[in-house]
Design goal:
about 90 residues, two-stranded antiparallel sheet, extended, about 5% helix, little secondary structure, single chain
Length: about 90
């Protein structure tokens, strides 16, 4: 569902997702420091191709994590890819 994000200097738009039993979530419990995830945030051609436009994602506090697990840190990098259609 599209929602407005209202800031003092500008208005932005975002997407909120709501519970659906068809959703499937993945937890990378054994992710290593040299491993990374790439998440598709927006794809303008996806609808035309019958693909997902984006990938909902979240974070949570793992209160009962084994003490042998290192704390994780999230670093977000955004990149825009623009290309001509072939």
């Amino acid at each position: 569902m599209k929602v407005d994000q209202v800031y003092p200097q500008f208005l932005a738009e975002n997407i909120n997702f709501y519970y659906n039993p068809e959703h499937r979530w993945h937890f990378a419990s054994d992710q290593q420091p040299d491993e990374a995830w790439m998440i598709k945030i927006m794809d303008t051609h996806a609808v035309r191709e019958g693909l997902a436009q984006n990938a909902p994602h979240t974070a949570f506090q793992w209160h009962d994590a084994p003490t042998s697990k290192m704390n994780r840190e999230s670093i977000e990098v955004r990149a825009f890819v623009v290309h001509e259609e072939t």
